[in-house]
């Protein structure tokens, strides 16, 4: 196991028990069985480790939803969207609980900014979903808020209440509710002016070709010999010197899509190469 991955996994166990503030670097290193020097070679500080954990969770969350929104047929898109979102939260429930609790109890500017960035990526995906299913409806941004509300409320129930959860049933239920609202509501709250104001104040952080190549290089170094590593090498070469047919690129992207440490780079590359239904 790579040193960074070991630290992340062990630190998460401690954070889940004690919280961010009460957990020291010394405790993390002792729990990992490594020296402080080894820790600081991997992360400059505990705060950097916390942000890396947030990135790891949110990158998987966003990349899974992005793939679903852009590669699912319309007939099952709403169900698949909700199912993907709740499935990822359930699989990473310990960290999801932790980050929600910490946000409520403390204020960390870097953590807040990170969450704002990922929140806006999610909102853009929801807009894409709505436009695919319902066109440029006058209640588009009301639907965005409604879907976000559904996700927040039921995520809270999933994480913090002892309620038996059937994600399939929940996803079908929310799909039905969303369709009813989209097809029968005619009075929007979000006017064109409010919508323009929202767009104006979004954080627009475009990932450059150079940044994608840097992320690719880092992932290639981290992975042991595997089909995922070989696919990343070929995709890096395709960015530098485009030669492959689109079907080959699609196959390479599919090779890395499900690997937990490649989901974010797969998301970035899908957008870079223009794959998926938009």
From TrEMBL:
It comes from Robertmurraya siralis. It comes from the Bacteria. This is TetR family transcriptional regulator. Keywords: DNA-binding, Repressor. It holds the Pfam family TetR_N. GO terms for molecular function: DNA binding. Residues 24-43 bind DNA. Residues 1-61 form the HTH tetR-type domain. The keyword Repressor applies.
């Amino acid at each position: 196991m790579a040193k960074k991955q070991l630290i992340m996994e062990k630190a998460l166990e401690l954070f889940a028990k004690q919280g961010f503030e009460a957990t020291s670097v010394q405790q993390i290193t002792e729990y990992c069985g490594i020296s402080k020097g080894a820790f600081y070679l991997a992360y400059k500080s505990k705060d950097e480790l916390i942000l890396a954990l947030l990135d790891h969770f949110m990158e998987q969350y966003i990349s899974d939803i992005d793939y679903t929104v852009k590669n699912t047929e319309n007939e099952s898109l709403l169900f698949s969207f909700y199912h993907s979102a709740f499935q990822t939260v359930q699989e990473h429930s310990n960290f999801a609980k932790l980050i929600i609790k910490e946000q409520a109890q403390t204020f960390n500017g870097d953590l807040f900014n990170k969450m704002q960035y990922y929140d806006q990526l999610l909102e853009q995906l929801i807009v894409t979903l709505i436009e695919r299913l319902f066109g440029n409806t006058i209640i588009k941004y009301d639907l965005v808020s409604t879907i976000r509300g559904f996700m927040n409320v039921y995520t809270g129930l999933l994480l913090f209440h002892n309620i038996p959860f059937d994600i399939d049933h929940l996803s079908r239920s929310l799909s039905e509710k969303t369709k009813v609202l989209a097809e029968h509501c005619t009075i929007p709250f979000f006017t064109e002016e409010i919508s323009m104001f929202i767009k104006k104040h979004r954080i627009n952080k475009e990932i450059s070709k150079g940044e994608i190549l840097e992320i690719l290089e880092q992932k290639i170094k981290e992975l042991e010999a595997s089909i995922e590593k070989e696919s990343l090498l070929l995709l890096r070469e395709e960015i530098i010197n485009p030669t492959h047919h689109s079907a080959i690129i699609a196959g390479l992207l599919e090779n890395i899509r499900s690997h937990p440490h490649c989901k974010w780079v797969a998301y970035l590359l899908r957008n870079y190469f223009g794959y998926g239904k938009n």
